[in-house]
Amino acid sequence: MENTTLFENLTTHDFLSNISEIPRPSTTEILLRFEPYSVYIDRIVSPIWFIIGLFGNPISAKVWLGRKSRKNSSAFYLGLLAIVHMFQLIIHFVFVELTYTWDIPTNNKPVLCETLNVLSIFPQYLAPLLVLGFTVERYIAVCHPFKKETFCTVRRAIIVIACLTALSVGFACVQADLWTYYPIYKECFSKNEYQKFQTIWTASTEIMFFLVVPLCVLMFNILVIREIKRITSHGPAVTAGGSQTSTVTLLSVSFYFICTLLPASVVYAIQNEMPNGKMENLLSLERIATDPVWLSFFKYIAIRKVVDEICLSNSACYFFIYYITGKNFRTQVNSLLTC
């Protein structure tokens, strides 16, 4: 969802056919003039998530992939998820924040244009699949306990993770063929000849990864909760404490994932229905000020920025969920920090 500009509804042809000798105001300049809060939110909140993630994700990865947790198949999903989130925060800062928030373009060079578009979308594809992976595993462990020894093993988890990673890489690499650097304009744009395909591809992949996957996670979580409720109705002695703690942790992660990703998916879907102002009015701030359609669109962008930041917290805050809900995780972190 993030390897795009604020003007996804406009085609490359729209931009290139309206290039003039006078430089067009950048996205940052436009928003600072008409919706400055959207830029301030990015400049203040995003670094907070980055700092939290820079601290929490490496610790989470070390604990989940450490010797004490390695016997638990779910730990492999959570460990890799922490690594993916760390990678996503770094790429988000290098690509999105510097380019669109601080007005320091990082993708307007050959090779970097295609590479950053691939790298920015790859973790966005893989993270939801990993959440789905351990959610399905927890569903099997709780709802079909006799199949747990067959399907919830470390070896099978590694195989599934490898397949999910390969799938994400394959989907992400398509971006390399959809974007290109235009040396004449010194800009990174999607290829004009692939515009129709890109529209269909983007819609299809966003529905699959950012709508269908979260809804599947929600469905499996509901089934798990129903089964836990049924089991506990027979008395607390039926469930093991360690398994209960693990289930609470994984359910908390899954629901936080759903609550932060689904609103972002809805907001991005709404953008396709938002009318754009006249393209030629983007050539100067003065002309934009006379276009009520663009001014209305920028108000939507301000709302979208708030939702974006909530969604970005998904890559930074899982450490707190693990620490609050997981006794073993909390013990290992305390031991690690007091060494």
UniProtKB/TrEMBL annotation:
The keyword Transmembrane applies. One of its GO terms (molecular function) is G protein-coupled receptor activity. It comes from the Eukaryota. Keywords: G-protein coupled receptor, Membrane, Receptor, Transducer, Transmembrane, Transmembrane helix. It is a multi-pass membrane protein. It is found in: Membrane. PANTHER family: G-PROTEIN COUPLED RECEPTOR, THYROTROPIN-RELEASING HORMONE RECEPTOR. This is G-protein coupled receptors family 1 profile domain-containing protein. It comes from Mytilus edulis (Blue mussel).
